[in-house]
Amino acid sequence: xxxxxxxxxxxVICSLFLITALSGCSIHSFSVDELKELYPKALENSFNEExxxxxxxxxxSIRTSWRxxxxxxxxxxxxxxxxxxxxxxxxxxxDVYEEFNTKAAYxxxxxxxxxxxxxxxxxxxxxxxxESGTAVNYRKTEMTPQDYxxxxxxxxxxSLESMLAELxxxxxxxxxxxxxxxxxxxxxxxxxxxxxxxxxxxxxxxxEFGKSxxxxxxxxxxxxxxxxxxxxxxxxxxxxxGKNISVDKEVYKLETVYYGPIINIPSYDSxxxxxx
Length: 276
Fold this sequence. Notes:
Layout: H1 2-26, E1 27-29, H2 32-47, E2 52-59, E3 64-72, E4 93-100, E5 103-114, E6 120-129, E7 135-142, H3 145-149, H4 152-155, H5 160-163, H6 165-169, E8 175-176, E9 184-187, E10 190-197, H7 199-209, E11 220-226, E12 229-242, E13 245-257
Antiparallel strand pairs: 1-9, 2-3, 2-13, 3-4, 4-5, 5-6, 6-7, 8-10, 9-10, 10-11, 11-12, 12-13
């Protein structure tokens, strides 16, 4: 009986050791030196991606906003983009949407549009929204998605490069890792870390660009890289709820995946677009 008890104890210890060992393989701490090497590479890898879907949420004291951008194309069975004889992405489509202070503001869709007679043309469809949230000011421009994506209207506002511009400007040396919510871990293909930024960086950014950094007034931020590409950033600020009571509030969030939902292009001679 005594021997059986000892065997049970040994079995439990071995099991715990095995679980600990396996956990050690799947998740471990990530060093600042490793991050310095990965950080610029992950951003560069993201910039090199032709297809992406990002979603941005801003929730600060000045305004709230929700914006999305989906750059889409057909994929083959190996999840590789299909290209035509000219090397261009097959059936490329783009969809952007903006909402400010909980009110719809702007929408644009670009891609191949089929008329009621079956004729196919490439169009950029745009519309705004009035105070009641009704779509207004319909307009269309004959344009390919390839032309739209290199236009200033898209590049300066909706491209992934423009969305990640400040992160490209930010260096790991500008980050403070000795914070209450410190996190730096590597789990499989995902790296996640938390940091604050230096006051010097905030001043430098405002001087360089004439506007406040996304980290202005923040407590800390968390960034996630997945498969050596940017996946998300969440910026937190401290919100006071009462005497000696405060919570960490999300004031900015940007999430990115590299293949978004299917986009449906309207018919360019349908009711709302025929005279646009």
